[in-house]
Amino acid sequence: xxxxxxxxxxxxxxxxxxxxxxxxxxxxxxxxxxxxxxxxxxxxxxxxxxxxxxxxxxxxxxxxxxxxxxxxxxxxxxxxxxxxxxxxxxxxxxxxxxxxxxxxxxxxxxxxxxxxxxxxxxxxxxxxxxxxxxxxxxxxxxxxxxxxxxxxxxxxxxxxxxxxxxxxxxxxxxxxxxxxxxxxxxxxxxxxxxxxxxxxxxxxxxxxxxxxxxxxxxxxxxxxxxxxxxxxxxxxxxxxxxxxxxxxxxxxxxxxxxxxxxxxxx
Length: 266
What we know:
three-stranded antiparallel β-sheet, alpha+beta
C-alpha cells in the first residue's frame, strides 16, 4: 500500500512539474537590431520578460562565442540539432533578463542579414526595433507583418519599429535586412562595451596626458631652481662687497671713504 501511495505521489509531482513548464511563457520580448553601430557587425540586444522562471532555448548564430547578460557572460549549454541550427539552452536567474551579442557581417559594402527568432516557449508580444545605420543607403527590411512605424530620436537616429503577437512555442520567425554602406562608416565607434572579455589597457590618450604632465613637472622644477640660485649668489656678492675693498681685497675700514692700503675710493 505504501509503495502504491509513493508511486502515485511521484507521478503527481512529475505531472505538476510538466504542467508548470508548459505554462511558462514570455509575456513580452524586445529585440534591438543595430547594424554597423560601434563595430562592423550586427549588435543584437534582447530583453525578455517571463511569467515564471523555466529553462529556455534560443537560436544563436554559430559565429557567436560570447553572450553578455547583466551578471557577466552567459554560461550556456549548446544543443546540436539535426538541421544544424545552433541553439543554446540555459535557465535564467529571474523572470526578467537581457542578452547581448555581436554577429559578424561579410566584409563587403553590401550588407545582408537574416535575424532568426526561435524560442521553446510561447511569446505573447514580440517587439523588434531596427536602427538604421548613419551611413546606410537603400535601407530596407522585410518581415511578416504590416504593422510597422518609423521613429527618430533626439540625436537624429532613425528606428523602424514592428510588433508581433501570439507567437507559438518553437515557431520560427525571421526578419531580413538589406542595405549598402560604401564608406563602411560606423554610427558610433567605440560606444559599447566589447562583446568579449578583453585585457584592459591604458588608451594612447591617457599615456600622452601622463607623459605631458611629467615633462611639465620637470620644466617647472628647472625654472624654480634657476630663480632661486641667482638670488643666493647676488646676496653673497653684496655681502662680500660690503666687507672688503673691491680693488685690492683688503678689509674695509669703518668711517673711511678711501682704502688705506691702495688709496682707491670704496
